[in-house]
Amino acid sequence: MKKKEKKISFIKSHPEAKGLFLLGLALIMLLSLLSYHPATPKENWLGLVGYGIASGLTYVLGLGSFLLMLYFGYLGTAFLSRGEVSLIKAKHFYFGVLLVSSCILLNLIAEIKAPFPDLLAQKVPIETIVLDLPYPHMHIRHNLGGVPLYYLYRDLPTVNLLHLLSNVGIGITFSIIAIVSALLLTETKAITLWKSIQKLLRRTTNSLKSTRLPKPIAPSQPPLEETPIFPEPIFPEPIFPPKKMQPAVSPKPKRKVAPPPPSTKREKAIRSQTVINGDYTHFEIPPSSLLRDAPQVDLSTLKKDLRRQALRLEETLLSFGIEAKVGDIHCGPTITSFEVQPSVGVKVQKIKALENDIALNLQARSIRIIAPIPGKAAVGIEIPSIIQQEVSFKELLIHYQQRRQKAQIPILLGKTVSGELVMSDLAKMPHCIIAGATGSGKSVCINTIVLSIVMNARPDEIKLLMVDPKKVELTSYTNLPHMIAPVITEAHGAYAALSWLVKEMQSRYEILKQLGLRNIIAFNARKRNLEFEKSLSIEIPEKMPKLVAIIDEFADLMMASSSDLETPIARIAQMARAVGIHLILATQRPSREVITGLIKANFPTRIAFKVASRINSQIILDETGAESLLGNGDMLFLPPGSSNLIRAQGTYINDEEINQVIQFICDQAPPNYLIPSFDTMPKEDLSILAGVPDESKDTLYDEALSIVVETGTASTTFLQRKLKIGYARAASLMDELEINGVIGPQEGARARRVLVNSPKKG
């Protein structure tokens, strides 16, 4: 008895033994069936034993034997890969129903006539059609679904299925039973299966459409004019789409070149683009099938490891004189959160002070203690997970697209510690600062944000403006039709772009004022009154697209010209929300010189990856914690309208996925720039952009002008003293006077020359 008990306990505690046994059984069945022929038992690959196994299986189940073999193989693989598999009896019942219904359907198939022309009038031995062709050695003597079920199907003398239902009824009934049992067995929802079939059909249709070759151009056609990428620079107009969209670039009149024949797939795809002259009616949003699934991770031993880690955490706290119990455990992709409930009389700060000691005893790289968890009588201790998992952007995208409530500008970020998806709406943020050291995941987060936008919005709904001083992170997005201009890489180009955004913001507010509307949502939802709009002094567009400006390496730009950039950024951040203009700033170094108080006050939403010090964390989040993050996408997210930080693992997107999405979009529509290039904008256009409009001119400008002209003295300190104002305002007035040609440029430490004579002096 003891020996039998030992054998049973050995099998229960060693699931790999079950797995190997079931896989071996499946392999024996496969080899026996493939080499089975009733007339030659000795030719079976497994000898007489294999012949006997195959004879019994084919007699009872027919081709259903292969289904039984696959089920054994699945169970064996599950035991080997996941360890102990919890199989309820209902699963075996579902498989039994699937097996029986499949065998009955196979017997029904055996009764159909052969699809070959010379055999239309006679029933053909099914082994001749199905079995002898692919496998010469395999031969089944009986019907496809086995002899017992064949008798149930039609040969029972009193009652049989054929008599009760007929062939059509049998086919419909048992097909439904087989499908339902298969769905229950695999735990698959019918709607999910239907959507998968729809996506497969859609992908097949799209691939067939994309492979159609365009009609060749007749040689008698005149040569086409070549359109340059950048025309002669002109002062840009606001970004409103006109009533009839015109190309953003104009051809040179004299130069004519015949187009070369398409030599690549990219050129062929462009010739069959669905977007013509800015009309995006037939524009297709990139499907989620362009993205890859996250790799699967073995989580079979996770529960035991978490219990062991929780016990060690309690023992560690007890060794320092703190009695506490671990309550709920939340296991995220990279972080596990333990809710520790201390005993009565234990001070929370005492646990907080043991952060380094707990990390040492748990052998963790770093831990983060939340004392207490908001809304709970517990302390949160976040520890790196034993098993690291990758967060799939595809999963977030599919989940968002299935939601009924959509965001205006969706931002898909990642997963929380408890496995909840982190999504937000940039329109509600309305501006965001992203900070993180090298390798922390900041650049991947920016790519995630860009793909969140372009995979959910058409180019006429959201426009993008990007600044990339490193010239390597964002330049791949240059050819997107969503882009206002090519990616900006120079500091003066960034200044020009921000100045243009300020001008655009003021133009939009003027339009809203003329129409008596409050925001861009009301503008786009209005019923147009063309007669009234034509009577106004300004042109009213049909729609206003939202604008998203993404500025990477903001610290580098601030070092080059902080005074020039801070003012337009602050103005946009304060006022641009209502007209649909939003800013995203990213930096590796969140110092006070970069994220100034003026900028920080107008950017309520922050995303912090791992930073170098507690001071940097304090600057970006107003509290510590970012210095203890793990890197590689581990983030702290401060959502709009909240003071509670959310710890999440950011999604990962590789270059191949990004390029596939860009290729899919660019194959439908070419870039349609409103601005040829901010980096190469002429100085006269820059000066116009930099100039302050009359309606927003400093109220002291006229007084400063009269003082400078009458006294013949022009310096910042002189204006400070005369007007009793601060240095920044006086310097701004000096800049205005220089732009308007009243005073000359700075000449060392000397006062500037006054270029305009006083009227009194004649």
Descriptive notes:
- It is a single chain.
- It is built from 26 helices and 13 strands.
- With 762 residues, it is of the alpha/beta class.
- The chain has 4 domains: 11-197, no CATH class; 319-384, Threonyl-tRNA Synthetase, Chain A, domain 2; 409-666, Rossmann fold (3-Layer(aba) Sandwich); 697-761, Winged helix-like DNA-binding domain superfamily/Winged helix DNA-binding domain (Arc Repressor Mutant, subunit A).
- The protein has a 9-stranded mixed β-sheet.
- It is elongated and about 120 Å long.
Key terms:
4 domains, Rossmann fold, 762 residues, 13 strands, 26 helices, alpha/beta, 44% helix, nine-stranded mixed sheet, four-stranded antiparallel sheet, Threonyl-tRNA Synthetase, Chain A, domain 2
Provide a concise account of the structure shown.
The chain has 762 residues and is an alpha/beta fold. Helices cover 44% and strands 10% of the residues.
Give the name of the CATH superfamily of the largest domain: P-loop containing nucleotide triphosphate hydrolases
DSSP strand tally: 13
- The CATH topology of the largest domain is given as Rossmann fold
Total number of helical segments? 26
Number of separate structural domains: 4
Question: In the CATH classification, which architecture of the largest domain applies?
Answer: 3-Layer(aba) Sandwich
Which consecutive residue ranges, at least 5 long each, have pLDDT under 50?
1-11, 113-142, 212-277
N- and C-termini, Cα separation: 125 Å
